[in-house]
Amino acid sequence: MNEFMELSEEVLSRALNLRFRMKGTSMFPTLQDDDIIIIKKFDISNIHNGDIIFFRPPFHEGVTHRVIRKVDVKGRQAFITKGDFCPFFDGYVYPEHILGRVVAIERKGKSINLDKKTTMLKAAFYTRIICFQVGVYSVLRGLRNRIYKLLGVLLRLSQRLKIYDFFITLFADTKPITYRLASHDDAPLLAQLYSAYYWPARTRLLIRYLQQYLKDVSRNQGYCFLSQKGNRVIGSVAVQNFSSDELIQSGWTVCSPFVNWRYRGMGIENKLVELAKQKAKEQGAVEIKMAQFDKTHLTFS
Q1: What b/e string do you get for 225-240 counting C-beta neighbours within 10 Å, with b at 16 or more?
Q2: Which tens digit of pLDDT belongs to each residue from 219-273?
Q3: With b meaning 16 or more CB within 10 Å and e meaning fewer, what string describes 244-261?
Q4: pTM (2 decimals)?
Q5: Domain limits, the chain
Q6: Among 79, 100, 99, which residue's Cα sits nearest to residue 89?
Q7: What's the fold here for domain 174-300?
Q8: Minimal CA–CA distance to 90: which of 129, 118, 63?
Q9: The CATH number of 3-126 is which of 2.60.120.10, 1.20.1250.20, 2.10.109.10, 2.60.40.1180?
């Protein structure tokens, strides 16, 4: 356990309020980078869906995420939590992991009281939206994967035909694919890559999130690689050296490999991952993990 967590547990065990500055984007936009949050110890029986809690899961340090629902796991009470901007749920959070609840946020000199009835109603409503969103996301992604699989079979069959080479020569984009390191200014280009998965009205929010994401990558001694065709970004991947106080496992980790569906199957993702691994090795990495999604949960290999 690091010094921050030892101090946090000590403060909360004395029934004092814990106050610290947020880092990270998993709860964006509810909690933003550099927000100051106030955490208070409370009775576990008073946890409600929508509450934002501060907890310490096994093998990880402090996490501040939203309670989605209560569950029973082999006769034990547990909670499902999730970051507002994360596409996946956390693992089960048990009462002994929970340290406190976020009761207020300070942002740009203003204080937001999370115990107000209107704020609590918004949180409860938002939680229902999150559950619906994740459910729809899982169903649509499964449907999308089946469609891609079918299209892949049709593509492989068509590649056996002589006329296939003729059409490729006729319609193929002749611009070369280039690879480079991303900078903070590339957030709008990255937003174009991901925007197909977001409502257009959220594009500005997505750009703000990606700007913060690129800052976080840099803060974790990390790098983000882009693949481009002309002025268009068609793929990206990040490699970061996570410390022990992050939700994700510590050490060098390749995460978020993504390629526009039109260009998948061309070896672009493999090239991006190889560049990321090579960069990590240059920085002294001995072991490099790959973060992947198993349905809506994060796994490592």
Answers
A1: bbbbbeeebbbbbbbb
A2: 777 899 999 988 889 899 999 887 754 445 678 888 878 888 777 767 888 999 9
A3: ebbbbeebbbbbbbbbbe
A4: 0.52
A5: 3-126, 174-300
A6: 79
A7: Aminopeptidase (3.40.630)
A8: 63
A9: 2.10.109.10
